[in-house]
UniProtKB/TrEMBL annotation:
Subcellular location, record wording: Cell membrane
Matching InterPro entries: Bact_Polyamine_Transport, MetI-like, MetI-like_sf
Principal subcellular localization: membrane
Protein's membrane topology: Multi-pass membrane protein
Segments crossing the lipid bilayer: 7-34, 73-94, 103-127, 147-164, 185-206, 237-263
GO BP terms: transmembrane transport
Pfam families, per the entry: BPD_transp_1
Keywords assigned: Cell membrane, Membrane, Transmembrane, Transmembrane helix, Transport
Segments forming domain ABC transmembrane type-1: 69-256
Organism listed in the record: Paenirhodobacter enshiensis
Cellular component annotations (GO), alphabetically ordered: plasma membrane
Stated name of the protein: ABC transporter permease
Length: 278
């Protein structure tokens, strides 16, 4: 076996530093969340316990943590649903080059290059001038869609750019209607990317701060609640909350991956059953 070159070790060291920079803060918060009852916000640790996790579920004056979590969760589901539906419909529509499609595409993704805080300010002003209530389920919902929809559109455009239209033609030759073709042919084929768009939409909404800051009204979402806690909480309970929310994020990812795996397994079984029947 040939010895590794110096460039290999330099690249390995650089990658290790990158991983440390990326995940080091999360790991540090996870460790400090297990401080003892007398522990502080920094090292060295004063004992090891789960005291601060229990404190999260106890009556305390640190804000509406679980109410904020429920709002973020519901808002994430709302944003996810709309992002998936609109992205799939737009992907289907943009396969045909209609008049103004290019301009519409650039308008759809323009919000990605606009500072998020300006989007939040603009949406808040629109609702305020229109006499509409500034609320996490309305104005914040609209502001977050300006963030999630462009990503969903870009993913679906890439998917449909590689989609083989012969599958649709074969379905129509068999007498399938347009809706039957979409339901039984197109959607099963693009199911994994659609699930990816759903995960993208939910995760982007769940931890969005800037576009929610001026549009959530009097009720905080979880990122806003955590930001508020940084100014008035001086114990590791905030680290315990960060650890739990991180585990929740990993659990959501695992659920979506499980759905993709189940769909793939079902497809393989369907293919093998069809082969046996032939």
């Amino acid at each position: 076996m040939e010895p590794r070159s110096k460039s290999f070790w330099w690249l390995t060291a650089f990658f290790a530093l990158f991983v440390l920079f990326l995940y080091g803060p999360t790991v540090t918060i996870g460790i400090l969340s297990f401080q003892g009852p007398d522990g502080g916000l920094t090292f060295p640790m004063r004992g090891v316990s789960t005291h601060w996790f229990h404190a999260l579920f106890a009556q305390q004056a640190v804000g509406d943590i679980w109410g904020a979590w429920r709002r973020s969760f519901v808002l994430g589901l709302m944003v996810m649903a709309v992002t998936v539906v609109v992205s799939v419909m737009a992907g289907l529509a943009f396969r045909k080059h209609f008049v103004g499609s290019g301009v519409l595409f650039y308008l759809a993704i323009a919000s990605l290059v606009i500072p998020s805080i300006l989007v939040s300010l603009g949406v808040g002003l629109i609702f305020n001038e229109g006499g509409l209530p500034i609320h996490w389920a309305t104005s914040a919902f609209g502001a977050q869609l300006t963030w999630t929809l462009p990503f969903g559109l870009l993913v679906m455009f890439a998917v449909f750019n590689r989609f083989d239209k012969r599958y649709e033609e074969a379905a129509r030759d068999q007498g399938a209607s347009a809706w039957q073709t979409v339901r039984h042919v197109i959607l099963p084929i693009i199911a994994p990317p659609v699930i990816g768009v759903a995960l993208f939409g939910f995760s982007l909404s769940y931890d969005e701060f800037a576009r929610t800051l001026l549009t959530s009204g009097s009720y905080n979402t979880l990122p806003l609640e955590i930001f508020g806690m940084t100014t008035n909480v001086t114990n590791p309970v905030i680290y315990a909350l960060g650890t739990l929310t991180t585990l929740f994020s990993f659990a959501i990812i695992a659920v979506f991956l499980g759905v993709v795996w189940a769909l793939g397994l079902r497809r393989r079984r369907g293919g093998s059953d069809a082969g046996k029947s032939v």
